[in-house]
Specification:
By secondary structure, this protein is an alpha/beta fold. A hairpin with a 6-residue loop joins strand 2 and strand 3. Helices cover 37% and strands 13% of the residues. The protein contains 23 helices and 21 strands.
Length: 717
């Protein structure tokens, strides 16, 4: 079953986002449970047929999820917090919330833009086999004529990605219970006649959990009633965890040789190497000769992807509009599977490949910080210029993206709506958003971004050096998908991008309207990036383009400019010893991007869903005048890390990734928690993130409650 070629995982949303549409129809009551199950079964069947047709030797299963594979693991192990058990659908309640019940916290899957649900584990949380999803998928595939290898989140990574229930110790303290549950699961899978199981342990590349992994796989490897075990790591080098795993009874180890580099074959301890030589994190073709050269170094090797292909689009063949010269350089999921198969075939025929030619890396320049006047001077100037009340209320930028807006963009692209007609629709939507905010009593307004399909793609469409796709969707979380742009050349700004719409919005109101930009690190992090120059250099090019846009917005009279940088924490290297260098140049790039604003122009930034509490010093170093940051969804974790943060701050008091509308009292409680740690004169009141995923009725009700909570707490003179 573990033959010459395999992959660690495959996209699951459907080539045309079939799962997204089915999920949203199910949540809205337009689709029944049986119909949703049928969509999932069809997508799984199509995946196995597709992979088999491409010639892949070993097919994975249990890579499908209706929302998130970490949440699936929690349900499989019965790690469901008690408060969700009475919900009509506890899975949906944990993912999206229910009446009076907030969802689980959500954060980024390592250094990717995929979001996972964070399990909550206490001392009494059950950890036992309580489901059969992996077995059901094995049976589904077998009914179609395919034998598969179930893929599971490994026990150490599952516990490291979990958080303790209030008052409980680290989830790692439950390792023995978790391993017992995995032993029962492996026995149940073995009873189905399954030959191999894949246990994913990407957390080990961070350098933590090594002793726990040795303990867990000593036990699991010693079991007699189990399938053979492939322990797969990815997103970096395994380091000290490699000899720990090699000393256990597992049969195979998966390594990311793209990001982690080669290893000494002797370090594998005679285990089969599942060699990740085809990148699962980008859309560039593999240098097959160089990959084959690396593969030929190992005596017992299976060709694979570096990680799951969850992070790339399905099929390049659908992108007929891309420049042919660029298409020749690209590979999406299906093309990467074909590369794996081709490499395995060449290796089986004795191919040795060609050693890559080493090119010296250019010297890394020291990070230099652009500076505006000191913050106290700027703050005094801005207070006079803006005249805002204490506890000013604002939003993060986007307002609901309606079906009408999406239809208008599609009609413009198809040529059935002319540009003047499209722009009139955009102006009408901007006026709707402005009037709504005025009516609600919001203090600093936004134009709602109706002209933007995505906070990164919109800028990519207006900058040189980028290409965008039509069908290159990648899952972000649940039913939400993005189309990451492709940075293939030098980045330049040919003309202003946002000034026209910001100026129009400001003409409609006397209240300040924020100019809305995406920061350089985030634009790069949420794109597929060229590999021929250092990442730092790409970020620097984008920072210069953003700097020009900031300059033109300020010249047009925009008093507040928000430059979002939610991916600052996301790109943080997984190994602690490399983090300071990255944060140095990332912070310098942001400060360069915002340095063209005058002292009376207030610079805002925004971060969300990325454990930003771990990089508070770097956030402070961005030198933004105001930082809005996700807090409601994460239970105020950021509030415990704010010592020394000396600028305006808006920890979110409304979780926008749930359809729940928080009451004014709930918002007020969250705001009171902020006021205990941040002086009132520096606190802003805002949601966790943008509002594009919500409906207008939800938004209007929630924002009204934000305004009420803020006004009730404003000091009375």
């Amino acid at each position: 079953m573990l033959t010459h070629s395999t992959i660690l995982g495959y996209p699951r949303i459907g080539p045309r986002r079939e799962l997204k549409r089915a999920l949203e129809a199910y949540w809205d009551g337009r689709l029944g449970r049986a119909d949703l199950d049928r969509v999932g079964a069809d997508l799984r069947a199509d995946t196995w047929r597709r992979l088999a047709a491409l010639g892949l030797g070993s097919l994975p299963s249990n890579t499908f999820s209706e929302y998130d594979h970490v949440l699936d693991t929690a349900v499989l192990l019965d790690a469901v917090p008690e408060r969700y058990r009475a919900a009509a659908d506890s899975y949906v309640a944990m993912a999206r919330g229910a009446d009076g019940l907030p969802p689980l916290r959500m954060t980024k899957w390592f250094d990717t833009n995929y979001h996972y649900l964070v399990p909550e584990i206490g001392a009494d949380t059950p950890l036992r086999l309580a489901g059969d999803k992996p077995i059901r998928e094995v049976r589904e595939a077998r009914a179609l004529g395919y034998e598969t290898r179930p893929v599971l989140v490994g026990p150490v990574t599952f516990l490291l990605l979990s958080e303790p229930a209030p008052g409980s110790p680290s989830p790692l303290s439950r390792l023995d219970d978790a391993v017992d549950a995995y032993a029962d699961l492996l026995a149940a899978i073995a009873a189905e006649g399954v030959q191999w199981v894949q246990l994913d342990e990407p957390a080990l590349v961070t350098g933590v959990g090594v002793a726990e992994a040795r303990r867990a796989y000593d036990r699991l490897g010693a079991l007699t009633d189990r399938p053979k075990l492939l322990v797969a790591s990815y997103f970096g080098e395994l380091g000290e965890a490699l000899p720990a795993l090699a000393a256990t009874g597992v049969e195979a180890i998966g390594l990311d040789l793209v990001r982690g580099g080669p290893v000494d074959p002797a370090a594998l301890g005679g285990k089969t190497l599942v060699a990740g030589v085809v990148s699962g994190r980008d859309v560039w073709r593999t240098d097959l000769d160089a990959a084959l050269y690396e593969l030929s170094r190992y005596p017992d090797v299976v060709v694979s992807t570096s990680c799951s292909l969850l992070h790339v689009p399905y099929d390049l063949a659908a992108e007929t509009d891309l420049d042919p010269a660029l298409r020749e350089r690209l590979a999406f999921a299906d093309q990467k599977v074909a590369e794996v198969v081709a490499l395995a075939d060449r290796l089986a025929r004795g191919g040795a490949g060609v050693a890559p030619v080493a090119t010296p890396s250019p010297p890394t320049p020291a990070s230099t910080m652009d500076s505006r006047a000191p913050y106290p001077e700027r703050a005094a100037s801005q207070a006079v210029h803006l005249g805002l009340p204490e506890l000013p209320v604002t939003t993060i930028g986007s307002f609901p993206q309606t079906d009408e807006l999406r239809a208008a963009r599609a009609a413009l692209a198809a040529g059935t709506l002319d540009k003047p007609g499209y722009e009139r629709l955009i102006e009408a939507e901007i006026e709707r958003v402005i009037r709504l905010q005025e009516r609600l009593g919001i203090d600093v307004l936004v134009h709602g971004e109706p002209e933007r399909n995505d906070m990164v793609q919109y800028f990519a469409e207006h900058l040189e050096g980028f290409a965008t796709t039509r069908f290159g969707w990648v899952q972000s979380y649940g039913s939400r998908c993005t189309r990451p742009p492709i940075i293939h050349g030098d980045v330049r700004r040919a003309a202003p991008i946002t000034v026209r719409w910001t100026r129009f919005a400001q003409s409609l109101t006397d209240r300040p309207v924020k100019g809305m930009l995406t920061g350089p690190v985030t634009i790069v992090a949420w794109s597929f990036v060229r590999r021929d120059i250092p990442l730092r250099e790409v970020v620097t090019q984008v920072a210069e383009a953003v700097r020009e846009e900031v300059r033109d917005l300020a010249a047009a009279g925009t008093s507040i400019i928000q430059v979002d940088e939610p991916a600052l924490r996301e790109l943080l290297p997984l190994r602690a010893e490399r983090q300071d260098e990255y944060l140095g140049w990332a912070v310098a790039a942001y400060r360069h991007a915002t340095s063209s604003a005058g002292d009376h122009t207030q610079i805002h930034t925004h971060l969300c869903y990325s454990n930003a509490n771990e990089v508070v010093a770097a956030i402070d170093g961005l030198d933004a005048d105001v930082t809005t940051i996700e807090s409601a969804r994460s239970g105020g974790r950021i509030l415990g890390e704010l010592d020394g943060f000396g600028r305006g701050l808006g920890p979110g008091v409304y979780d926008i990734h749930s359809p729940r509308v928080p009451g004014a009292e709930e918002v007020g409680d969250l705001l009171d928690a902020v006021l205990k740690v941040v002086p009132v004169e520096r606190v802003w009141v805002n949601p966790d993130c943008g509002l594009k995923t919500r409906t207008y009725p939800q938004v209007e009700a929630a924002l009204a409650n934000l305004v009420t909570a803020a006004r009730e707490r404003r000091p009375r003179n």
